[in-house]
Specification:
By secondary structure, the protein is an alpha/beta fold. Helices cover 52% and strands 13% of the residues.
């Protein structure tokens, strides 16, 4: 009998590699939206999981953002069951309209639902269907935001329970794998709506590929891998430097002894450790803090999220809660 097509084989190999370190009997769940990427991932996991004596299931999250979303979720669940996945669960979530926008709120709600499903079923691994193209788009968005090496390093292949086996697989490969296996997928209309930044990034990658030559997506993904290694090292060094500083107040000389690339990360750790919400600490805040060391001319205390005050006095830097306004 002929073997799997090249596209199917590539997806299965990526999945097999992501499962190889698990013990027999372990539970793996695939987050499936009904799109080509997650269905190709589900199909490969349904083959490779049992082949390694693992139990493979799926979780379908219904965000409720579009008319008919419940039907789409039910159809995706049916397809997962037909592939042989078990357990298969549909989870409906409520997406709040937070300050980060619909995309961020939907992601938060989805990840919370996936984490709860993993805990419920005792899963030791949770697969997400992000591809090389998604990685390239993520890097481009990070570049547009000017957020530094960590943002440019894209999505990690592994973090906690989460695994992204398809970061080396293109979107076209997952579609071809579905075609070759006779799997019909759902195209999310939100993926064509330019109101969303990720859709504009997708179109930008396509334009760059056309204007600068093929291979842009792969090059951006490679850059992400390299920058992630750099960022991981800097984060580890910043952890060590922060530990060496100990509790505040901190001598100016001890802070300024760190290289600038480390100081920005140390400042972030000091601010968050003092009570600043991590999502509100930006480069603007850490740069302002650093000017207390490198451009000191007697400036007043800095107001940073928390609400906190950062003050330099008598050769020492303190971070303290802002006193209430009377």
């Amino acid at each position: 009998m002929p073997g799997p097509s090249p596209a199917v084989a590539a997806v299965r190999y990526a999945v097999r590699s992501a499962l190889a370190d698990l013990d027999p009997g372990a539970v793996v769940l695939v987050a499936c939206s009904g799109g080509a990427d997650s269905l190709a991932l589900a199909a490969a996991t349904a083959v490779e999981g049992p082949g390694l004596a693992l139990r493979a299931g799926a979780v379908v999250v219904d965000h409720g953002l579009q008319a008919g979303s419940a039907q789409v979720a039910a159809r995706a669940a049916e397809q997962c069951r037909a592939l042989g996945l078990d357990p298969v669960e549909v989870v409906a979530v409520e997406v709040a309209t937070g300050t980060g926008g619909v995309e961020a709120s939907a992601r938060d709600a989805r990840h919370a639902a996936l984490a709860a499903a993993a805990a419920q079923h005792g899963a030791v691994r949770l697969f997400l269907g992000h591809t090389l193209d998604d990685q390239a788009e993520q890097v481009l968005l990070g570049l547009a935001r000017g957020s530094g090496a960590r943002s440019l390093s894209g999505m990690p292949a592994a973090r906690g329970l989460l695994r992204r086996p398809l970061l080396g697989i293109t979107r076209e490969q997952t579609r071809q794998a579905c075609r070759d296996e006779g799997i019909a997928w759902w195209d999310d209309p939100m993926n064509e709506d330019p109101a969303y930044a990720r859709v504009r990034a997708r179109r930008a990658v396509t334009d760059l590929d056309r204007d600068l030559g093929p291979g842009i997506a792969a090059a951006l993904a490679r850059s992400a891998d390299q920058l992630r290694a750099d960022a991981d090292l800097l984060e580890a060094l910043a952890d060590a430097a922060t530990a060496d500083l100990g509790p505040g107040p901190w001598p100016v000389a001890a802070l300024v002894a760190n290289a600038p690339a480390l100081r920005s990360r140390v400042w972030r750790r000091l601010l968050v450790g003092a009570g600043a919400p991590p999502g509100q600490v930006s480069t603007r805040h850490t740069d302002a803090c650093d000017r207390l060391l490198t451009d000191w001319h007697g400036q007043r205390s800095l107001h940073v999220p928390g609400p906190l005050l950062v003050t330099r006095a008598d050769g020492l830097v303190t971070i303290a809660a802002r006193p209430p306004v009377e």
